[in-house]
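Input/output pair, single chain:
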Amino acid sequence: MVTYLEAIRRALESEMRRDPRVILLGEDIGRYGGAFRLTDGFLEQFGPDRVLDTPISEEGFTGVAVGAALEGFRPVVEYQFLDFIASAFNMVTNFAARLRYRTGASAPIVLRGPAGGGVRAGPFHSQNPEALFAHTPGIKVVAPATVTDAAGLLRAAIRDDDPVLFVEHKRLYRSLRIPEEAFASAPEVIPIGQAAMRQPGTDVTLAVYGGAVVLALEAAAALEEDGIEAEVLDLRALVPLDREALFASVGRTNRLVVIHEAQLTGGFGGEVAALVAEHAFDSLDAPVLRVAAADTPVPFAGELEDAVLPSVARIVDAVHRTLRY
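Output:
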């Protein structure tokens, strides 16, 4: 079986073999093999010139990656937990993302790492920072939700000539797995910016991405028992967003529930809702509803974390509420 984590590992490995310009930077990714053991053995395979153990300085090693990109390399930066990309916010948003606009030079950098909650990791290791970067012009934002997407979208990100934030939900690392044959037959590269319909439906669209896709599919299965057919649309990428797929789905179902694990206020779901209200309002038979995390840091206590994060029950309730209009 191939896990979500193993898919990312294999994609990194194959791209490093394919293109000698691909280098890895991050804390403990070499000798230790990464906090989640994702790069275990890479140092022995590719050597210290291509697998660089860095100091604990996110802004520092992200800046090194920007410089390396300008020199012709294709750096892949790992943040042990994506929460700590906040320490490199200036380097990502004011340098990497704006480099092409300011100078005409490309910055082919992938910024990847584990995000999300549900694993009892507390407020410093459970954040979902994707909306902070989706707001910044010049950077693509990708959030794979399946094993094959994790590999195919990562290859696309590494080959892209602009910065890509690659958001991996840590809860999926070892919980998602598919047979070896299914992984081998999947597309090698999946274009960034194409949504995927995970389940067709006629009554409501569930627009979702990343780790919340699993919840949406479970909710859709529960809704089926009530005779409700929910269409699950996996956005895959926030930037660029597949607006056509989103509008087409809402056109079929006439109702929309947007789901993500990041906090509600300022979350990317608000952008999705606004776009549908602006461009597909005539398709709507009910207000757009959002299911997201509460506006609070993620608690460490399990019961409190469960109360803060989206759940299957909250998605089902939102669908029933929109169907009552």
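The longest strand covers residues 256-263. The chain has a mean pLDDT of 97.
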